[in-house]
Amino acid sequence: MFEDQSESKEADLPLDLVGDKILSKLPITSLGAVRSTCKLWNALSREWILSNAAKLKRQVLGFMTMDYKIYSLRFHLHKDKYRGVYQSRKHIDILNQVEISKVFHCHGLLLCVLKDKSRLVVWNPYLGQTRWIEPRTNFHKCDRYAFGYDKNRNHKILRCFDDYDIINKKLSFMVEIYDLRSHSWKVLDVTSDLAIEYDANGASLKGNTYFFVQEEIPPGDGSIVVSDLEDFLICFDFTNERFGQRLPLPFHSSLQEAVTLSCVGEDQLAVLYERLYTIGTLEFWVTTKIEPNAVSWSKFLNVDMTPHDGYLSHVGSFIIDEEEKAAMVFDGRRDDQPSKTRRYHRAMTVGDGYCGLYEGLRKCPTETRPPLVCSSSYLPSLVQIN
After folding, report:
1. How many domains does the chain divide into?
2. Kindly report the CA angle at 350 between 345 and 352, in degrees rounded to 5?
3. pLDDT bucket at 3, cuts 50 / 70 / 90
């Protein structure tokens, strides 16, 4: 009787009041506990998420790896009122039994790569569900991954790796894909001269993943020094399960310069370019058109970083806010101690004529240099992955 009366009173509360006063204050990873309270709260949280998508996008949600553990972040990007980095940080207990080395985001789901390379795990933070994935043969340290979905919203995992061809005595670029619906791996027939770096993080947009790629260095005896290669974007189409054609960038980068991809909402791609030979210059570009085989660009922001050490050390990720005309950039720097055995995360809010800096989110082992996975377009997913 008491439970029925309680649910009746809760049902009388306006949805906006429940959302603004309760649900909006909770970390995304805590909404699962709210859902499990009763059928009414499950329905309320689901309805509020679906009806407040635009409002949720104004509050940036993200995930980061520190000391091989995952933390959720909640923060706002506001150039006038906000100079810090995050409002809250919460350790993810559901994945506490394993160590995570890499994290990828797609459509509200996270793909996590275990440090020991034994398995992958797909995690839905909102539903609190996980899917553990065994390798077809073995996972390796230098594997490259992407996470996306096809036209039927069926999620898939792309794995690229190098396999030594004994007959031709050379490394072959191999591609395989895992289908979450069929619970199976398959090898794709892909021939490519792509040089996707093992630590490259693609950007997932409208189900497809875009990579920054430089042309592969031709084989030789080492007598010729290669200092300049063609660079471009390439898209992996998860519906057709193949790579698209080369897409032009709005600049040309050298081998040592930093190029990082991110998403703007659900329809645009952004790229950060740090010029090596123009110390202290950050360029942010945003697509005005983006498809698997077509792209056009517009410059979003140009930032002089000279007053702030002049350069970034290791860009993990970034987000931009078109309304605020601002960006938030995450990188990793070496400790000042002589041993240089650890790095620390750093975050900056940058805009036209200003830079807000926050250091020391937490130190992490030097060899990992974990990327920060943040998204200005993150929304809770209702996709069942169990």
Report:
1. 2
2. 165
3. very low
